[in-house]
Amino acid sequence: MLTIYDSNGNRRTDIEAGDSSTQVKEVQGDNVLTLSFTHYEYIALDVNDRVDFEGERYWLTERYIPKQKSGQEWVYDLKFYGIESLVRRFLVLETTDGNTEPVFTLTATPREHVAMIVKCINDGMNHTTDWKVGRVDGTDLIVIDYEGKYCNEALKEIAEAVGGQAEWWVEGQTVNVCRCEHGEEITLGYGKGLTGIERDTTGTDNFYTRLFPVGSTRNIDPSKYGHSRLMLPGGRQYVEIHTEEYGIYDRYEQDAFSGIYPRRIGAVSSVRSEDVKDDDGNPFTVYYFRDDSLNFDPNDYELPDETKRVSFQDGDLSGLGQGEDHYFEVNFNSATREFEIITIWPYDDDTQLPGGKLIPKSGDRYILWNIRMPDEYYPLAEEEFLTAVEQFNTECWQDLAVYKAPTDHVWIEENGVSLSVGRRVRLESEEYFPETGYRSSRITKITRKVNQPGEMDIEISDALHSGAFERVNDSIGELKNYTKSKAEGAALPDIIRSWDKTLPTDNNLFSARRSQAEHISKKKNDRAKGKITFEAGASFGQEDNAGIDDKGNAELLTLVVREFLRSPKFVDGLFGEGWRLWMEDALSHLTIDKLTVRQVMVVLELLIEKVRSVGGQLCVSAANGKIKTAVLEDGYWRITFEQDNSFQAHDLMRCATFSGGNLKGYWVEVAGVEGDSILVSEDEFSGSLPEAGDECVLMGNTENPLRQNLILISATEDGQPRVDVMDGVKAKNFTGCLRARLGNLDGISDDWFPADNQPHGNGLYSDNAYLRGTFLLVTGEDIKTKFEIVEGRITSAVTALRNDFATEKGYLNNPAFDDGLEKWNTENETVFFLAGNKWIWANNNVLTRKGDGASVTVDDGRTVVHIRNKYILQKRANLKSIPSMPVNGDGEKEAVPVYLSFFYRCATKGTLRVQFLDVDKTGFANFNSLEVE
């Protein structure tokens, strides 16, 4: 069952998805939830209506009108889109100048680019702060031209600029630019979660078995090298791979090896600059640098018609310069051994490169090219070329295959397996992978059935199969330029603050305060709001001096208990059950069934209570008697009574007497009856033996349920007069046998009642109660009169101090509902029946049909509001106070956190939501409006 909500989070309807409903999600692709169902009524669905599925949220992107099938059937075929699809609607906008500029270029680290895009996503998602920057690979400055570019296009371009295996993907609300691979590796295979495996290589145009790698022409002098471009060692022209399996499929590859050529990676030793003027008298700065490790003169290795160029490999000039090679033209002074960087103005304004923050620094690495290198560099380049070709074959040829497999939903569900895009997979198959028997990869696409989430079609691959990216050319009109230094751009993933609702992932971070709120401290005293489970037990002290194991067994040196210890269930009195040690009126009490003292027992005062048919405690049961004679014969005690015998076989006979300073008691089972005597096995007695004068009563029967009940009337010196009704006494204890008690209830402990409100005082404790008549409250009013008042106006005269709202400091008016629903708005569907213009009275009450609504009532002594499928609303004008909002450096107001505490009790299953409605974020920095569900 799925619930569709409107854009404000209000429930529209619950639906049961049809068999054709699916979730389709892939890396760097769409994330679409298709729902097909038939509903019994027409429901208008609007833009930004949403539904949650498998921990992800999906939105409707257009207004939808269903197809009418009959008078009571409406057919819905809906497509809800995840954030990966929604970002196609949002342009990348530069807002640092206070405007929203869609045409600009940005030079910054990949993370700074992503942070700007994430801000655009937050703006597009109603100015929230939920979306965060996660892991972003790459630290070099990259240049991206934004001209009407959408967020998904920009993220893809950033991933390509980062290179390697970078992809853009979203986990929860965290945007990442890195390889989409996460989680513990899970083993899958045929019969191990998969019902089949299919290898597919048709999804790419680059399948090959014979590679023709084309080397670079850079730093090559054909007259000296003998070739116009770099060659493999020995002049090899191609490399074969798996031709014996698939035959010959040729591939030509040049771009992958364009960065390999005879070259030297130098390092800047020192930098200086000079302020000069151009021919028009305009001032600018020229930068020079030296490389003290350079062991040849570049001027001796010039190529005809070529100008020496430098491309910086790191530092603030990395990724900057002219063309896609990001180069600066240079001159070399053989006398001073300095390179002069030719200044450029690439941004159609007065921004020069190098210049400002973007200048060379000592330690920056660079490559000098457009020269002929010394001879020793060419064999090194050829070996590097061969290594790159082999690496290309290892990575790219493997990437071609996509393994498609349907899952076994029974196996998935029984093993509790969670599969998601990017999940690491060990795919086992002796047939597909004969050398190793498996392949370690990741899931790149999932097509999942909505009504059977464990049933999926998954795709496992190392690479994505998509079309080539088309670069935006340089002639895009007037562009604004924004440049950030690499030091500014390097940063950690985004922070989840204490009030954010962002889901934690492996690629974002908790703030210090959020961490303090989420985690238990190891260094200082701390408190947990929820239950903490120690599956292996817990030890205490530096040397494990004490502990509790996983079974609940504890070993402690000492134990101080302030109030009481007891068994799970306890009933006080001679015929109670369980045990308890407790404090009462500054005196300690202990109630147990048996006590053995091996040496000395010191008793200052001993009060003995005995049970008999009459006296301080009266037992009413089916049998009793005073022993006349007791004789041991052949292992049995033959007992006769002064009156007629009323005991039967299997009766449990009990005696408790005190005579001559001796305490005596036994509880035994009657083995049989012979005439006026009963027989009791000798083994039944331990310690006390039967003798003349003992008074015995029936207290249960091991087989006959009709003789397992009794009534105890007690008026002893414990100050707890009571009448107990026992039933089900079939053993020598009263565990679970107390059915009712009238009188003093002190001493009863029952887990059905709260720990701080156990039965106490004089009253009635019973399994059931059927009562009639008039019942008076402490106010003198009878209950019947009290509840004849029309519902919705029941209030308490005095409301005790409440902890859920501090009214003198809070934002809400009338938060404790002392004044009914004053200052609150709601609606009710209660219908009052009228005869003419007068109410109809029935059974001394107004005749109504109560529907959904909200009303003030009393629950467990509290004044509360009872809400049934409706709401209560306090408008801004009715708030008691409104916090002031500070203004940040950009002139925007900063929303401040508002803390509201409330208690609620769920009477029936449903959803409770607390939120601010119709929030106007105009003039505010992005923030999340309070919404708790």
Automatic annotation (TrEMBL):
Region (Disordered) spans which residues? 1-21
Could you tell me what this protein is called?
Uncharacterized protein
